[in-house]
Design a protein that fits this description.
The complex is a heterotrimer of chains A (672), B (298) and C (315). Chain A has 23 helices and 22 strands. Chain A is of the alpha/beta class. In chain A, the strands form 4 sheets. In chain A, strands 16-17-18-13-19-20-22-21 form an 8-stranded mixed β-sheet, sandwiched between helices. In chain A, a hairpin with a 2-residue loop joins strand 4 and strand 5. In chain A, helix 15 crosses helix 16 and helix 17 packs parallel to helix 18.
Amino acid sequence: MQPVVELVDLHTEIALRHGVARPVGGVSLSVGKGETLGIVGESGCGKTMTALSIMRLLPPGGHITGGSILFGDTDLATLDEAGMRAIRGNRVGMIFQDPMTSLNPCMTIGDQVAETVLLHREATRTQARKRAEEVLDLVGLPDVKRRLDSYPHQLSGGMRQRVVIAMALACEPELLIADEPTTALDVTIQKQILRLIDDLRAQLGMAVILVTHDLGVIAGHSDRVAVMYAGKVVETSSTQELFDNPRHPYTEALFRALPENVDPDRELYSIPGLPPDLSNPPSGCRFAARCGYATDGCRAEEPSLTGDGHPFACFHPLGPAEQATANPRTEPAPAENGSALLDVRSLVRDFRVSSNGVLRRASGTVSAVADVSFTVRAGETFGLVGESGCGKSTVGRLLVAEDTPTSGSVSFDGTEISTKSNRALRELRRDFQLMFQDPYASLDPRMRVRSILREPLAIQRRGSAPEQERAVAALLDEVGLPRAALEKYPHEFSGGQRQRIGLARALALRPRLIVADEPVSALDVSVQAQILNLMRALQREHDLTYVFISHDLSVIRYIATTIGVMYLGKLVEVGPAEQVYSAPAHPYTKGLIDAIPLADPLREHRKESAGVRGELPSALTPPSGCRFRTRCPLATDICAEQVPPMRRFSEQGQRAACHHPLKAPVPERMAG
Amino acid sequence: MSAIPADDAAVPESRRARGSLWRMLSEFLENRLAAVGLGVVVLFVLFCYLGPLIYHTDQTHIELSEATLAPSLAHPLGTNEVGYDQLGRLMVGGQSSLEVGIAAALLATAFGTLWGAIAGYAGGFVDAAMMRVVDALLAVPALFLLLFLSSIARPNVGLLILVIALISWLGPARLVRGQALTLRTRDYVRSVRLMGGGPIRAVLRHIAPNAIGTVVVNATFQVADAILTVAALSFLGLGIPPPAANWGDMLSNGINYTYDGYWWLIYPPGLAIVLVVVAFNLIGDALRDSFDVRLRGR
Amino acid sequence: MTGFIARRLVQSIVVVLLVTVIVFILLHLLPGGPARAQLGPRATPVAIDAFNHRMGYDRPIPVQYWTWLEQLATGNLGFSVKLNQSVLSLIGERLPKTLILTILSTLFALVVAIPLGMVQAVRRNQVSDYAITFWAFVFYATPPFFLGVVLIVVFSVYLPILPAEAPQSSSLGVILSQPAGLILPVLTLALLTVAQFSRYMRSAVIENLAEDYVRTARSKGAGERTVLVRHVLRNSLIPIATLLGLSLPAIFSGALITEAVFNFPGMGELFWTAAQTQDYPIMLGITVLVGLATVIGSLLADLAYAALDPRVRFA
C-alpha cells in the first residue's frame, strides 16, 4: 500500500547569525493511511524541524536543502508556495504544542476554525460557521454554540487544544501532524486529548505523525516509531517490536533512563555527555561520543539504516542478550530516624480575587490550599504530586515561609515558622532552602557562578572570604561541575547544568530540608536522570530531607518515600510511596496513575479505564463536599453534602479522604 | 567501556567567557548604524571641544562691520547679524548644547531610576501613589511647563539643566518601574529573600543591574530629547540669553532671516542638531537591540 | 471591561486633581505671588493687600486651593488684565482651532504610519526598510520649528504653492474654508508623529509575526496578506492605542511650536504670546486645560485599547 507521505533522505538547514545549523541531516520515513507514526527523541534531535519541513513552515532562515517529501504525486520539498498553501490546512493539518499561544487572542474560536474552511472551500460565512460548529462538536468541546463566540483566553488548556485540533481537521485532511500536542497539558487532560486523536484518526481515516519526547505516549498511541538523534533517524520499527527488542544503543539508553522502568533502589541510567553541535556535526556515527559500545570504526564512518522491517543505524546493534544489563544499585537510604522535621497542620491559603468593579472589592476567594496536613520525617523524601491548580506550588512556598498562610501552621523542627516575621526567620532560613523549576529564570543572568554561590554565604555571614571561596569550590565538586564554571555566566550552561548550580546554591548553607519545586520538569529524560541521581547521592551524603514537588507521578514514584496527592487545594491521599502507587485508596490517585503514559505498549493498551473525565472545576467556586466529585466515577449524593474525612488505610500510615475509597479503611485504633 | 567524556557536567570550551563589557561593545558595533552614530557623536565632541583650540574666534565682542557676511575663506560659514563667526559659534554653541543635554539626561535618569525602582519593588499603595504623581507631571506637556518657568525668569545654564531634568525623569521612572515589577517575580529575586536577604540587596544587587539595559538605552534618548528641548526653548525666545551660544539659539536667530537668503545662518546649526540627535537615537536603538539579544541568548 | 474603565476613570480623576495641585504650586511660585501677576509689577503694597484680601489669598493655603478648585469647576479660569478678556473666553476662541490642528495631524499620522510600519516589518532589513527608517530618524530628530521653516522655504518660497502663514481669522469657519493654509502646519506636526508611530508599528508587527498564532494561521494555508491583515494587524494596533495616549503631551507641545512658526491662531500661540508678555492667568488657565485634555485623551486611548483587546473586554 502506498504510504500517505514519504520522506526520502530529507536535509534541512537553518542560517544562523554565525554559521549554519543542520537540524535534519538525512531523514527517511513513511506513514500509511490510518496509521500513527511516532517520532521520538530528546530536545535538539530534529523531530520538530522534520515536522515543520513537511509543512514547509520552517523558521526564518530555514530551508530544505536536499531529499524529497512525497505526498501523493507531489514532492512537497520542491512545490511552489501557492501549491503549498493549497495543501496546508486542506490535505495536511498540523497541531502544535502550546494551545494558548497557538490561537489568535483577538479572534473568536468560531472565526478561527471557520477560517480554515473559508480558505479552502467555496463556502459562505454561514456555511463555514456551521462547519466550524460541526467540527468543534466532533472534538468534544462542550457547549459548542456558546463557545463559537468565545475568545481563547476564556477556555481551559484542554479545551483550547481541542479547538486547535478542530482547526486542523476542518477540511478533513489526509495527514495530521501533531508536534508535542499534549506536553503543555495536565496528564489527565493529556490522556483525553490523545484518545481523541486516536478516535478521530479512525473516524476520518487519516495518517498521523505524532512527534513527542515521551516514550509512554509513543507506547500507547503509535503503531510505528522512528527514534531520532542529532538530526538522523537511528531506528524505526513497529512500536511493540521497538520496546521488546531495541537495536540501537541510544534507544536502549533512553529506556534505561526512564524512572518508571527502574526500581527505586537502583540508580537511573544517565547518558553521559551532550548531543553534538549541529552546525558542525561529527564525522562518523553521531552518537559515538556518548555510546558505551562505540569503537574507532564508529567514529570514522557513519552507519546507514540497514535491515528490513526494523531498520537501525548502528555498527554494533544490541542483541536480545544485552538488555539484561541492569542499572547499578544505589546504597540503601539511611533508615529514617522517625522524628518529624516538618509538621504541617490544617494549612489554608486563600487568595482574594479582586472584582472588576470600581473599588476592587474582593469578589471571591480562591482557596488555593484548603486544609492540608501532613508530616515530613527527617531523612525521607516527601513527594507532593498533583496537576495544575492543585496548590502544590503554593504549599511549597508556605513550607519555606515565602508566603504566610491564611490559617494553620507550618512547624520546622518544633519551631513554628508560618507566623514569624522576616527578620526573625533570617537565621532559621539556613535550615530550609528552595530549589526552583525553571533553570533559565532561577539564576541571575548578570552574575557569575562564583557570586551566585557565594551569595547565600554572604547574606548569612558564614565564614570569611577565603573560607567562602573554598566552600564554593567544594560545592561545585559536589554537584559534579568543573572549577572552571566559577568564572562563567549562567547563559553559558545547559539546562541540566543550571539545575546543578541551583542545587549547589540550595546546599550552600547546609540546610536540613530542601523543597524542590518541579526541579526536573523542564529537562530531557536523560538529563533528568542525572539530576535525580545527584539529588539522591547528596541526600545520603548530607542527611538531607526533601520535599519534592512535581506533576510527574513516575518521577515521584521513583524518588519519593512518601507520596502526597493533591487535588484543587486538598490533600486527597498520603502515604508510603509503594502503597500509594500500587494500591491507591482514592479514585483520583488511581485516575492519575492510570493516565500516566507507560513506556510499555502492552500495559498501555490493557488499561481499561477511560481515565479521569471532564475538566478541572473553577477554584473560585470549588464543588461542595468532595472537590473531586464532579469528575469521579464513584460519586454519589453524600459526596456533594459532606467533606470526606481523612481515614487510615494501612498500618504504615496511608491515609485518604474519600467516601467511596478503593479499599477498606483500617479501623481507627482506640485511644489509650 | 571506552573512555567517555565526563557527563553533562563538562562545559564545552568553545563557550569561553570574555569580559561582558567587551562582548557588548563588539555586538553593539556589529550594527553598522550604531557604529555610524557613535562615530558622529565622537566627531562632534572633537569638533566642539578641540575645534576652538585650533580655530580661534571671538564670540563675545560685537563687530557690526562684519555682520552677515557670506561664507568666505576668512569666515568659512559666514558671520551672523552681530558679526560673530558662524563656524566658531557652531563649535562653542555645540559645547553648550551637548553639556546641557548630557547633564540633564544623567540627572533625569538617576532620579527617575531610583523613583521607578522603589515604586516597582514596593508595589501596592506606594507604587500607585508614586505613579500617579508621575502621571500628573506627564499630563502637563513639558514645553508648557518650561515656558511658564522661563517666563518668570530667564534661566542660566545650571537652572536650565535642572528644569529639563525635572521634566525628563518621568520617562525612566515609568520604564524602570515596569522592569522592577517584572523582575520582582523572577526566581532569582525570590531566592534572595529565601536566603534571608533583605529588599535592599534585592533591589541593588539584582533588580538594578538587570534593569541597567533599559536605563542606558533610555538615557541616550534623553540626551537627544534634551538637545531638542533646549532648541525649542531658544526658538520660543526663552532659552539662555546671549551672548552665550547654543545651536537652538543660532537656529532660531537664523530663521528671522529666512527671506533674506542668509542660508548659512539657518542650515548649519539646524543640520548640527539633526545629526547629533539622529546619532544619539541610533546609538540608543542599537543598544536596545543588543541588550535584547543578550538576554535572549540561551 | 467595565471594571477596567472604572479603574482608569478613578485614576484619571486623581491625576486631574494632582494636575490642579501642580498648577496651584506654579501659581504660588510667581515672584510676588498671584497679586503681582494680576496687578503688574508696579502695584503698590496697599493695592496688593487689598487684592489679596479680596481674592482670598491671605487665607490658609488649603482653603485657597479649595476656593481655586471651586472656581475652576465653575469655569472661572481667571481674567487677563492685559487682554481684557476672561481666560475662558479667550480659550474658547482658540481651542477649536488647536483641536483641528492636532486631530487632523494625528489622523494623518496614523493613516500613514500604520501601513508604513507594516511594510517595514515585512521588508525587514531590506533597502526599503532602511530608507524609511532613515527618514523616520531624520524627521524625529528635526526640531519642529526647523522642519516648519524648511517646509515653508520649499513650498512657499521656491515653489509658491502654499501660504506660509495660516489664516489669521478668529473664526473657525474662515479657517476651514481656506484649507491650503492648514496643509503646512498639519504636515509639520504630523511628520514628527509619523516617525515615532511607524517605528513602534514596525516593532509591534515584527514581534507579532514571530508569534505562534501566525504559524498556526500559515499552517491553515493562509497567505502572507491574510496573515498580515486578518491576524497581525489587530494585535499590533493594541500597543499603538496605548502609545497614542502617551504621545498626547508631546503632540500638544509640538502644536505649540507649530502654531508659533505658522502664526496659527490657536491655543499654543496664545500661550506663547502670554509667556512673552508674562500674562500669567492665561498661562495657568491653559496649563490646566491642556492637562485635562491630555488626561481625557489618555482615557479615550485606553477605551480604544480595551475595545481592541478581548482579554480586557472579557476578563
